[in-house]
Design brief:
2 copies of one chain form a homodimer. The first copy, chain A, has 17 helices and 28 strands. Chain A is an alpha+beta fold. In chain A, strand 1, helix 1 and strand 2 form a beta-alpha-beta unit. Chains A, B: One of its GO terms (molecular function) is FAD binding.
């Protein structure tokens, strides 16, 4: 602590504090975009058991755009239908359900349960695939200095942070190893519970740091350091909200039970209380149970006594509620207890130099399975923006959209959580048997789009160009700026392979011009595409094409803007070489860009590729439309194929023009 | 070589020589079944580029049963349609096609192209997941001794092999590092061409062997040591057949071409010659080109002069054939040249103690994309049989089925290859333009089932109980002993998750009783299931149940025979707990076997799960049927739900009864 004179000093463009789901997501972008970055975490290893487990549809789409959704799908447990058990007329528990979301087919993916530790592993693997960026573990940030005078100079390093390598003793302390982690987990399951690549991380936890302390100067700081965020405190941003009087126990077990729906998502409510049942991977089931209500009347700000809550106590509670069904377990993977609170920071950023993401700025109950999703999507949102600004590709003005986009959603999350928790913790059977179920379904419906991430509600900004008519260009148009590009499975013109747009619109750091080219077999339509291509090829005036005027990411060759064409003519009646050269993206070494032309036509050997993309997008199959899709797959701008001015305006606002000859 | 006195001596149940695709497949079973085994290879690393690349449908189903098909699907390139280019009436090349197999939807998977090196990596990862078995590299077998007198004693070690660790100099010699590997590969692509987990293998190629030589005594030996198999020579098994006069060049490149179908599977034939085009992963395309014909008339047994064939020469050949289209490349990943021959060993085994698999016993032209598939399926076939016999689970009599099953298929392969090569190498344009295409399509159709592995033609044996009526029990029945269990996507009764039977019938070393329970909502049918369950539960007499009488794999708890029930009643009208206890497989620690009851019902959120499994199997939805599926997913026996005698007879023939109290 007093060795400042021995501390080394170094510079980095981006420093990320905290390597949980949100920090890793931000780090993915640094790795992918070639940003000079560091990421530190105080814990000596990543998470292995317990913690978050719910993965919502939009999160899975993001995973697909990164490239590891197939691993989640292989290991995770899908839950689509939900069941609500309530006492029937005779007092015995009866099932209401299964209920299924009406939006269940709006994404190729379905809500999935998988341990947070696996997700962290997958993101780490993706980071490794693209760069040498490594999480530096067992390190804390000790002091913070911010020079406000430098905030408007994009080349300046206004942030100074002192890092310190923890000693082995410090690492063993509960505040580092995690207060919420298991206190008395059943033995015999630890090893079988981990996948082999987890183990390697655990074994290789050695910290090979050269110095005990280090001064880092950074252009940008992203604080992803959890509910007790050190970073947030440095920039004096408070958390607003309060704890409720609800205390919950949560336990991950392999059940031994004759309850019919122990492997199905749902709730059980009766006079004895309520349980939320969440089936998981590897035969695990997670149970959430309200275990105690702090008597606020007699004890104003009582914090509950965690030591009174044990796995045994949670088990007895579950047994009482499930009666007459039996319940027991021999294997407990993880458990904890917590007091529910809803808290949010009034802002998620300081001067667009320091950003906060995930639990550092919003905490809430974990039962709705949204926490990890919101956190990862925070990190995913700020990550590409900081990465593109730090590399000189994007206009620093886009940074303000982080707070605008994510704070609003966090407020919606807390609102959702308040409703959901409320319904949950009315600790009594519903009147008339069905009342509770109905009110739950109402809430679920209300928040369905939001919860699954099918809608993002991102407002107008330098990154979202809203249309005058919010419904879009044509009646029934579903391509809305500020919302994700709705996934569709397409055929590649050149080779006939099928792929979801979530993979095609890969998270590689580039904005994309997506040309829905319509029916290119029609002469008039073909002419429209040719006119657009002339413009894109720069044949309508020097430096007029947006495909070549902007800065390219470091180490990348090719265009700063990726162009993807999706036509609606029959696959067999169209040829890759029918399309204008500029859409086929020639490279001296790699040849033609065979992955650039796609077709919305049915494929007889792939049912998901049904040729109904244009219908799903609400776009006329003849006339098409074009759009700019942001690096995170949200739609930035939509316009007719002739609206090259609108497209250029959007891009000029977001990106920085390359300096000629540089 | 003269250090015999320093050689250590050790025992192993199974020694595998050669860690290519067939050897690794055999090793997978050793790892999965807990067999004491060793696997050696003379090369210091696995393959990284080039070699085989074609993965047929049945191979992909096997990968799914092992658990890595999702990785192949993520990285590989699917080819379904094929195009044949021939000169049209005006002499210019025209496309015939695309042609698509009529069987394209008989499997969840489609023929895929992916480098052999990745496949080896995936199998290695699976081996690592289940055991500590590691490939010992840079090691050769030097001497072999076989004591015929011990062949009938299952506990004896009749095989003695002396191993030697190669010196660095030896490893660098062409005979070890691979004569067919690249001689002058373009630089700059080596690294980008490898995936990160490949690199690790390359870096960790250190050979940490304690001794220079070692004597190993083994119960069984599996020789997977390629076309020049050392093992085959030790047991005096010849190769029968001959080289043809056809010489081919093959080149893996990233094409720069305006040929419309350069990214599509197909052929181009004209007066200048013929090309086979195979699109691959990572923008690669493989081209096979006949480059030279050895004049047999003047030079009886001429071996071609490989040095005369260069990438440049292959390129010029392609350019001439593709005219007027352009062709060039800057990146060449791998290339080679070879003389086509069809050779087969008259037997694949010696005394059912030494087995030979893959190229060691059959070689042929690589163009049909079958070589790696046949080899892996050889290894997959012999692997489980040796593993179960070595662990005392299965009757040694099953070992003879390896030669019976695989030799017949290898003969079919050579027959296929002769036809295919013939059509290919008629080095002239087809008469009438379409004649060639038509004759090709005929061959393709003829061998379609065989090539894709949809049919295996395994004959009657202790492992395949043929029905009197080869058509099956009921008209239209498609469950044929000796053929694979046709894949269907089902819903899990307990949680509603969907899964392909290729995953459900996991390759874990167990035989499976698959009960197609029919409509269990019907009282009569329910009674039939209950009667069967009484029998299975052993309630009809002591030790009468086949579920408990056989030996269990080492380290396994639970049943030697896995029971999977698949009913046809509506998912929502059926409960997991409706089924008899014996079908729900209770375990004291893990609770009920929620993965044991499946339902053939349509799922609204998964199009592949269409509720038409019984129709596909040709099984009556009311009455059902039952079958024994072998560990490799081939059907061993089929019978009515009452035919417990038939089932028991089959199992008694294949498995060894456990010694009570042992």
């Amino acid at each position: 602590m007093t060795e400042d004179n021995h501390a080394s000093e170094s510079h980095t463009d981006v420093l990320i504090i905290g390597a949980g789901p949100s920090g890793l997501m931000a780090a993915y972008w640094m790795s992918r975009c070639g940003v000079r970055a560091r990421i530190i975490d105080k814990k000596p290893t990543k998470v292995f058991t317990g913690q978050a487990d719910g993965l919502r549809v939009r999160t899975l789409e993001i995973f697909d755009s990164i490239g590891f959704q197939h691993r989640v799908q292989h290991e995770g447990h899908v839950t689509v239908e939900a069941n609500f058990w309530v006492p029937g007329p005779d007092g015995n528990l009866i099932r209401q359900g299964p209920f299924c979301s009406s939006k269940v087919n709006e994404s190729p993916f379905h809500n999935t349960l998988l341990n947070q530790g696996r997700i962290e592993q997958f993101i780490l693997d993706s980071i490794k695939e693209h760069s040498g960026l490594k999480v530096e573990r067992g390190i804390i940030a000790e002091s913070f200095d911010y020079d406000e005078n430098l905030k408007d100079d994009p080349d300046a390093y206004p942030i100074t942070v002192k890092l310190r390598t923890l000693s082995d003793e410090e690492i063993k302390s509960p505040s580092v190893s995690g207060g919420g982690s298991p206190q008395a987990v059943q033995s015999g399951f630890d090893r079988s519970n981990l996948v082999s690549d987890d183990w390697e991380d655990l074994v290789q936890k050695s910290r090979s740091h050269q110095t005990k302390t280090e001064i880092i100067k950074a252009k940008y700081l992203i604080g992803c350091d959890g509910a007790h965020s050190w970073t947030r405190k440095q920039v004096d941003i408070p958390m607003v909200g309060s704890s409720t009087d609800h205390i919950w126990g949560v336990i991950d077990i392999i059940p031994i039970s004759n309850f019919p729906d122990i492997r199905r998502l749902g709730t059980v409510t009766n006079a004895a209380g309520m349980i939320l049942i969440i089936p998981r991977e590897r035969q695990l089931v997670r149970l959430y149970v309200p275990v105690q209500v702090v008597d606020k009347a007699t004890n104003g700000d009582a914090r509950f006594d965690r030591s009174s809550i044990t796995p045994e106590m949670i088990k007895e509670r579950v047994q009482a509620i499930l009666k007459p069904y039996t319940f027991d377990y021999k294997i407990c993977d993880w458990w904890t207890a917590y007091q529910i609170g809803q808290r949010i920071a009034p802002t998620f950023a300081k001067d667009d130099r320091v950003f906060l993401a995930g639990d550092a700025v919003h905490t809430h109950s974990p039962k709705v399975g949204l926490g990890m999703n919101m956190s990862m999507q925070d990190g995913f949102n700020i990550g590409w923006k900081v990465a593109l600004v730090a590399t000189g590709v994007a206009n620093p003005a886009i940074l303000s959209t982080y707070n605008a986009e994510r704070h609003h959603l966090a407020e919606m999350l807390l609102d959702f959580d308040r409703h959901w928790s409320g319904v949950f913790t009315e600790n009594k059977p519903p009147e008339g048997g069905l009342g509770k179920t109905e009110s739950m379904m109402k809430i679920v419906e209300l928040f369905e789009d939001f919860a699954d991430g099918l809608k993002a509600f991102y407002g107008a900004s330098p990154l979202v160009c809203k249309l005058d008519n919010e419904q879009g260009l044509i009646p029934g148009h579903h391509l809305v700026p500020g919302e994700r590009f709705p996934p569709v499975k397409l055929r590649k013109q050149a080779d006939g392979n099928t792929q979801w747009t979530t993979r095609i619109l890969e998270s590689d750091g580039r904005f994309r011009l997506v040309i829905l080219a319509g029916n290119v077999c029609d002469a008039t339509q073909k002419q429209r595409i040719e006119t657009l291509s002339h413009f894109l090829a720069g044949q309508l005036g020097e430096n007029a094409s947006p495909l070549s005027r902007y800065t390219v990411l470091p180490g990348r060759s090719g265009r700063p803007i990726d162009v993807v064409t999706i036509h609606s003519a029959p696959w067999k009646e169209t040829e890759f070489f029918d399309f204008p050269e500029i859409l086929r993206d020639f490279d001296d070494t790699m040849g033609w860009g065979y992955g650039k032309i796609w077709c919305d036509d049915a494929c007889i050997w792939d049912r998901d590729c049904d040729g109904k993309g244009y219908e799903r997008w609400g776009v006329d199959r003849m006339r098409g439309v074009m759009l700019i899709v942001r690096p995170d797959q949200y739609i930035g701008w939509v316009g007719e194929l002739e609206d090259t001015d609108g497209m250029t305006r959007y891009l000029d606002g977001a990106l920085i023009k390359a300096v000629p000859g540089k």
